[in-house]
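Inverse folding, one chain.
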């Protein structure tokens, strides 16, 4: 680690749980961020500031004026530009030492297969169940930890699904693919601006903990935030032995 990096990351290095070794793991890490919007903005910005070596971000959309109320990586001048390019510009302004792969694509099973395999940790910052299930399936298939976040109106949630632990659930154990969940979108339901920052910052924290091996993660636990009362509730998540996504993998020797 050269002198500029030692100085830039000195406040991490001063932490006994991280130190030089942990920071070097961060510098060598590769995160895949699905979505460059409300959650993806703080996720990617904190990962970049922390020095995560490679950040790959996917999003098919362009910046809209309505995004600026909460999607803090984008600026007024970015309206009309691809979100991934706007985010890449912000990340390089924060930290020119990292590598950013900006992919203007809609994440699907085919693209995720290669992208997830190349990453050390995956952060789902998408806003629909179809994408979330596709991301989860790829993470289970390749044995990659998934940090999942969601936010709508004043309610947020976050969990980690790391099926490298045979007892841990995957996303589909908690939200079965065949269940009839009502799809809620910011465009119709609204979202409290700081809520995505709270959940996104926690996603980044969980990802950095996974990369460094520091602390106790949220694997097998779902945290839910009531933003009106600013109260957290926790639910323990069991693995579904009959899960159509992870049961076969868990049964392998």
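Residues assigned per position:
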């Amino acid at each position: 680690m050269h002198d500029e990096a030692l100085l830039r990351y000195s406040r991490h290095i001063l932490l006994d749980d991280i130190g030089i070794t942990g920071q070097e793991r961060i510098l060598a890490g590769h995160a895949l961020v699905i979505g460059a919007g409300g959650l993806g903005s703080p996720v990617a910005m904190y990962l970049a500031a922390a020095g995560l070596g490679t950040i790959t971000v996917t999003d098919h959309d362009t910046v809209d004026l309505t995004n600026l109320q909460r999607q803090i990586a984008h600026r007024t001048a970015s309206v009309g530009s691809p979100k991934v390019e706007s985010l890449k510009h912000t990340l390089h302004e924060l930290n020119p030492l990292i590598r950013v792969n900006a992919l203007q694509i809609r994440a699907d099973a085919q693209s995720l297969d290669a992208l997830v395999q190349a990453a050390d940790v995956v952060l789902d910052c998408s806003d629909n169940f179809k994408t979330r299930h596709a991301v989860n399936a790829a993470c289970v298939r390749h044995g990659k930890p998934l940090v999942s976040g969601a936010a709508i109106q004043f309610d947020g949630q976050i969990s980690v699904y790391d099926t490298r632990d045979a007892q841990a659930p995957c996303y589909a154990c908690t939200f079965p693919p065949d269940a009839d969940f009502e799809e809620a979108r910011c465009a119709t339901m609204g979202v409290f601006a700081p809520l995505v920052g709270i959940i996104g910052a926690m996603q980044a924290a969980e990802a950095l903990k996974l990369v460094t091996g520091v602390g106790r993660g949220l694997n097998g636990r779902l945290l839910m935030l009531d933003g009106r009362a600013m109260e957290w509730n926790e639910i323990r998540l069991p693995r579904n032995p009959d899960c159509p996504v992870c049961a076969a993998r868990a049964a392998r020797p």
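The beta strands are 30-34, 54-58, 99-103, 121-124, 146-152, 155-161, 221-226, 231-236. The mean pLDDT is 94.
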